[in-house]
Design goal:
This protein is mainly α. The longest helix has 25 residues, at 1205-1229.
Length: 1505
Amino acid sequence: MADLHMTSHHPEHNESVSSGHTIYSEILSVTSIMRKNSRWSSSMQTFYTKDSALASNLGLRRPGSNNVSTPQQGSREEDLMSGFEELKRALRSVQDVSSIPIADILAPFLAIIRSPLSTGPITSAALSALHSFFTYGLFTKNDQSVDAALAELSSSVSHCKFEASDSSGDEVVLLRILTVIEDCMCGSWSPRLGDIEVCEMLETVLATCVQMRLSEALRRSAELTMHKIVRTVLSKLYILDPASEEKRLLSPPSPLPDDPETGNQPVTSTTRSTEDASRAQKLGSAPVLVNILDPHDRIHTDSTRLLALGVLNMSFEVCGPRLGDFPTLRTMILDHGCKYLFQLAQSENSSVFQLTLRTISIMMNTMRKHLKLQQELFLAYTLDRLAPPVTGKPSRLGTPVQRSGLLSPRTGTPRAQSPNLELLDDADVEKGSPTPNRPLVIPARGSTRDLLLEVLSQMSNHPSFLVELFGNYDCDINAENLFDRVIDLLTKGVYTDYYGESLPFSYLSAQYLCLDLLLTFINAMATRAAVPGTEWPTGYVSAEELMQRKSKKRLILTGAARFNSKPKTALTFLEENGLIYHDLCEEITRPQSLARFLKSSTRIDKKLLGDFISKPENIDVLQAFIGLFDFREKPIADAMRELLETFRLPGEAQQISRITETFAEIYFASKPAEVKSQDAVYVLAYSVIMLNTDLHNPQVRKRMTIEDYQRNLRGVNDGSDFSPEYLQAVYDSIRRQEIVMPEEHTGQLGFEFAWKELLMRSRQSGELMICNSPVFDKEMFRSIWKPVISAITFAFMTFEDDYIIERAIAGFRQCATLAGYFQLPEVFDYVVISLSQATSLLSENLPSEVPVYAVVEVEGQSITVSSLAVSFGAHLKGQLAAVVLFNIMNGNGNAIREGWIQVFEILLNLFIHSLLPTRMLQMEDFLGGVSMIPLRGSSSQPIRLPPRSDGLLSTLSSYLMTPYSSSQDNPVPSASDADVESTLCALDCISTCRLEELYAQIMQLDLEPLVAAVRSLEALAYERTNARLQHESDDVPVDESPRPLPYDPASVFLLEMMVSIVCKTPAHIEELWPIVFEHLSLLLKSSQKYSVLLVERAVVSVMRICLILAAAKPSQLRDQIYLSFDLLGGLPPVIANSVAEQIMSGLILIVQNHREVISSQTEWNIVLALVRSSISNLEAARVSFDLIQRLTADGPEQCISADNIAGLVAVLDDFVTTAGIMVKVEQQHARHRPQPSSSSSPVIDRGRKAVDLMFEILKYIPSLTENHSEARDKSRHQLTLSVLVSLSRHSASASPEVRHSALSSLSRAVLGPLVTVPRSDVAEVFQCVLWPLLEAVIAAPSSADTTESRVRASALLCKAFMRFEISDNISGEDVTEHWAQVLDYLDRLMRTDQSDQLSEAVLESLKNVILVMHAAGILVPPLAVEHGDTRDELQRQLWHVTHDKIERFMPGFMESVIPLSSATVRSSIEPSTTAAATAEKLNSQAPDVVPSETATEPFARASIV
């Protein structure tokens, strides 16, 4: 046989061996074995070889030829042997074997196979011969008898008979039969087999498979043969036309002719149903295989079902998608196939259960397009079995389930298993379920659970699985929310607590599988997002319509849940949401609208529904509800069945009566046959209910007969009887099919009824919508992201398997990608938060004082071995989470909102433990260079670094630097080698995270995420400052004042980071400024309670941001600059002095670069107020004076205006005052030291220069007030007066340099042309300038410098009087008052200082004034009596006052200056001419000792001798 097989594989060898030789050899092989048997062992045995035919041909007559019939072939031993003899003779008589019909060649072999006289070895040899014929290709010839030969062969093999001997020999024969059948059906000639032949041979193989008395090896061989045959047959479905095959299948079979030669009719007993079955067998699996699966058929054992399941599974694998194209096969699978498979899925036999699940899985994968509701049912059942075990109390994780017996095909909306996935209120979940009385199943355990999860994995092993669930079920009002339920199961299945303590098996594999399924779904969604997916087909319901259905479904779920709890309150909700009463019109009333909703909603509790509509107040709803049924031409049994299947009859008799009466009214209105009145319908309806209970209630022992039923209904049809036929039909209908009320049966009967409902729904629901479209991805991801990410986080932190960790990391990345793609920042935030928690870099309480950590040298680099560095370096998962976190964030910053808080907390923790890159720790200010943020408060000042030009966040040069200042007060601990190694690992991980790149990307964020980042920093900074301060204050007793907070490096770090971000994003300063200003204002308002460095950094931050505000275009934020300046101006003096240098540095930049923002008097006042506050700080005073000098002195930066001149004078006045105060303090505390000179003291030098600048300001006052108006004149006078007052005050300064400079400047101002005082304001000049000056010099301690000042002051007083009261007094107003005060001050000077220098100066000045007044005709002495007194009253009064006051301290001075003779002479001269001449004469007699005074004025040339 091996040679024969080899020849079959090498057809070219057939040329060496003829077909005749092969046939002859097989004949000899069979006959030789036959001769070994006693039947054919006699050598004298004769064989009947058609001797009657030979005698007839020769014209001879044989006795009994007409009366005795020839024995049938094969009926005797001789016939079996003679067949071979005739075949041998035929072979010898022909040259070409092909001329012999194949039927003749096979006839003797088939006779042996069919004959009961044959033995096992003989039959085996005959079967082996047939196998050889197939192997050598005997049937490949185009012979007309091939079809008949194959039919005969099929019949013979299927009806093989032989004498049994030993079991092993018999099984060899059966194995040969299987081989021949396989050759026949799997060869190239199989298309020529008929349906009957195929059916016979399949039945033969199947019978061999199920014969339990046969050996295991034979049965397994038969199974393999069965699989190969079915695979071969089903593979032809792809070339068959379903329409033509369906037509041929339904056509009546043609009559089959008898065998002309043998007279046998091997197929005549085959009925039409058998032929139909055989045709179906050729198209797919035979109905017998499906029927074997029936778990309630006790004929078949589990072994037989395993065989059928194997064949069915193989069928789906071969041509599952094609099976759905054949209506008959599709119907068979959708109905009985699915029903039996779903029932077998509850089998206790593990083999049956496993193979059933495998078959269901492959069936769903290959035929899911046709299995929409069946898939829903199986998935719902699977999810129920995978639910957690029953606990003693209700759980929000899932509804407890218990076994009820059978898988129920009642599909509906799922229970509210998860508040995250269901849009039901908590009250709804507690009070009622949208799907009442759901059939319960027992939770799966152990390997069963693993198998179910594996099946779920296989069913979902295509990328569009979730899309299909969501579109087909979750968006279907009458379907389960399978998408939600699957995700809910998988997410919770990852957690250990989900399984409880009662499950005695390892759940790790289940957790892994749940996670893997979740990540597979997320990967499919991410793939659709990355690659443009398929558009939603136009032939399906539009995506928009499906989403609307989804929204409506949510409302219906909530409404149904509320109805199942409290129907009355639910009606309000339904009406508010447009579920009822929205379709009201003339044809539709309110009861009808409500009845439509109640009838169409499958979520309503049927028991509650029956109770609700049967209440008296709802009778109109009951009528509308029953009115929705169409009872026309329906028997009353069918009408009652249809009605009672929609709700459950209530228990009260009155309610049943209302329902029955309403039914009777509506049914009678449909004009049923034989019913004469409505009362008859009422009684008949009651009788149907009672009959149904009597016939099908298992507790009723004696069943009602038809006679009993007829007797009970006598005379109820309006006084007459119903016809026996009518009642018989009602009785038979109820007896054959029970009226199954909702939720009443949970056994087989209920299952059958529910399955019928499912089939009815499947005809209306259509096919499954299959499309891998991303149209629903955003909505799906929006509803599942939180539990999914939580599950991934749990797996990442809990599991140790590298593959799972890798998958979890990929899941994080994909969730982040989807969050960015769908623009769901809350999702990205959740990813960031989850990964942040997994890093172990978050700390609940960061220390305000950083401990001293060990610092070691590694390869020339100093590293800090902190506690966090050691723990983080040893935590591999934390490092993985950190790398994933920051890799995700890099480039995706725009998708983050709330997650920034965790990121900045991580950075803060790294900063505290010396793990941040160096460049992220630097502080920028205006003093040149950058500073490092000190970690400890022992550093009174930040460490200064040289200026750098590469920006704050440039590439990090080294992570191994330790950039923090350290305290040497505490001993430095040592570090072990393991700690150093862990620290190096931590530093390497942080380097991989590329923190500096992320920091730089923050500056490039869009507005919304940028604002979120800054708000996060502000929130963290608030917790470290204001919140902490409030907490400390609350802990302090009432009688104690709170102590200032110690230095906190974290608050400085957060502040610097926040301000750096704001300064690097000037385009968004308008949105960021309010956030930062709020924090800065809180710091500066409580500046005395914080560390100096923090306040200093807050001030620098304010000034840096003010620079940005000043540069903003348009300058709509100018007011914010001055709010900031006000805030700085309100600092306590001590704080203001400590930060004055920073304030001035920033202020100078603003004034120099953005002077346009200072345009009003108020603004200048605020700016200059800041300058004044900095004068007490020596360094700040230096730069501030430089600024004022540039603003006031001639040059390109000079900026004097009416708005700032007063402020500038005030600032200069402060500088001069400071110089005087300094000299006074030094005089008091160091009298042994010489007074500082201007060359040795910059303060005095600035004071002297300030005096000069004030005089220079006088030059610009006229130009600022050119327009002559009363207001302008008043303004000019006030400006001038302010300068003069300041000069007057400082003319008595303790500093000689300042005093002399001030007196000189005052004299030049008062006596020079720069000052023009209106006559009305002269008194104010004397009152505010001159009198205070005299008071000051009089009160000054006597000294040489004081005497000189008094001399100059007295001269200035006299000259000012001569100018304002004599020269400018054109109108001749009374000067007595001012002159009297001048004389009084001169008197006081003379009395205070008795020095000759002062006396001579006063006398000369007084003499000059008197002469000028006399020359001017103002001071006129009395004339001689003989001449008469011609003076007016003013002249007499003035002379009297002058004479009296001078006589007190200079007796006789008046007579010496103005003798009577001169007075008489001058009385006749014009006053003005006399005054001018006198002044000219006086000026020519004495030199001018004040060279700076103006020489053009007559009175100005008066000298002091």
